[in-house]
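Anyone else keep sequences and structure tokens together like this?

Example one:
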Amino acid sequence: MDDPARALQTCVAPDDDSLLIGADFWPRSVDRRTPGLPFWPEGSFGTIALRLSKARDEFQMMADAAAGALKPGGTLYLFGGNGEGIVSAGRRLGEVFAAVETVQTKFHSRVFAARGPRARLKAALSDWRSTFGFHVGEANFSHVTYPGVFASGRLDEGTRFLLETVPAVGGKVLDFACGSGPIAEVLTRRHGDVRFTLSDIDAVSLVAAKENVPGVPAYQIARLRDLPADKFDAIVSNPPIHQGVEQSFAALRDFLATAPDYLATGGEVFLVGQRTVPVAKLAGALKLRKHASDDAFTVWALHR
């Protein structure tokens, strides 16, 4: 079994001049998917450890960010599991640093040490901002995104199906696991009286979402139960069903168990998932019906 954290610990121990990026087990850590932690490195450090990102563009962004935060003469340690593509990531690290060497290969993992950042780094988050266009029906949208955001650079098909089939919503609406905010962006334009709240576990996704849907409350949370107490007329979601690369319904089960506490009287949950996702078995106290379905996706409507 891959254990990249253990492999890293055999190579370097953190001190007051160290930063960990992409995980949270050093005293000073930065992780975009851990609520309460900073999501971008600030300051400069003699030692930086970087956890390999799943998405290639996110890795490229964070390698540049780490290099930009490294003191002259400092060392960056890149660590990841063999099954995560760490070997090829080491080759890509050579595009950012002048010297890269393997320093550990134990625990089905690998650790690289890199020194000498090259010039022309894109070390600020704003350097990685991009936009793409999409349409739903006859309406066209320009959408902000960043590396590592869900479905970065396109509107995923599940979200599109939800937007094409969801009934009119109004009042207070929560977009749970909002990503970069395409659901709220489209429905805000479609229904002028809607008042959205956004939530997602990824801080960088929320940066994009707040650009796409300006002026709305946004919360970085891992679970619905972590949202401040409130009541919504509707909750919309394309919920996560993976933990890393493995399929997992734990987050969906927790979301559905908590949703009744956040629904106003008469409120409904509208969520989209692949047809194989067992929403009916996970619904708990919620009553549900199939609102729409095609060959790939189902939109479910649930209420108390």
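And example two:
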Amino acid sequence: MFLFAWPDEDVLGAAQVGDQFPLVPVAATVTDDSGAFQLRLDDPSVLDRFMTGDDAADLSVMVPDAGPSAIHEFSLERAQLQSAQNAARVEAASRTRDKAAGVERRIALGLSKAAAAGATVDWSGYHEKALVCNSQVKQNLGPRWVAVGETYNASGVHSDFHLLAGGTSTLGVGVSGSGAYGSYKSTSTVKKSAESEVNFPATSDGQNRQWATQYEYKKFLVVCVDPNSQAYEVRPTAFVTGVDYSSPTPPSATYCASYVAGSGLTKSSSTAVEWSNGAHLGPAIGIDLSAQSGFTSTVKVTYAFMEKRRLCGTKGYPGDSPVRLVSKV
């Protein structure tokens, strides 16, 4: 089982159809008898060179000769690496078990000072031991609309959605064995950042919006040798910008707080909603991919109340972890 680092976003964004590049092995391990494993990076700074403007390294966990069902993608942010310096280790822990349809995985990323449990590969002479994988750009799917936020306004309520430079979105990756339309599945994500501030229009008085901007997506063929395997991946490679919206029906929200005229709230912390179909890739690959943004200091929403109104969360109160916010009379 191997951990690979992808090139940084500058390389992926500039890559043309036909360009190919190696995926760099940075860790390896073996499973125990139950299928559990841990991957360790004794020096997390080795990932620095795979980070650029979005301050995150894109990583792949791959099981040799297990096909696309045994690929898991995730991003590791620079802040997580800095936190891990004290631990001197990054761990990815999982349990796998064989199934007729492939390999089922439960993978979680952790940063811990605890001693590693489970065997790890001796990386002396790792060039002779490492699975060799290369990726090639097969198709540029172009800019795709991605949902990044939402605002729901009762009468007497104004709202603003803010996507500032550096604002991070967690975006789904599509994986397929054949690359054919309709064959993709999405079980993992990577993180991408807005390189510029996007100005969304203010809304008020009954206007409901799901806000979208654009990321470029490309299709890659990942080929590994010794043992041989291949998979196609569709992943975001560049921030495009642009603004569009739809006008959805407000979700049910029952965790409410009351606000007098002249007051307001800016939500800039806790986790916002994840849309399973937030990245519109359906016409190109047969499924939409997931998207989630905010709430952070760079992806936030502000509500201002012109009259006495309520602001309600779908999963918790507005000041805690609401997930989604809806204003009401």
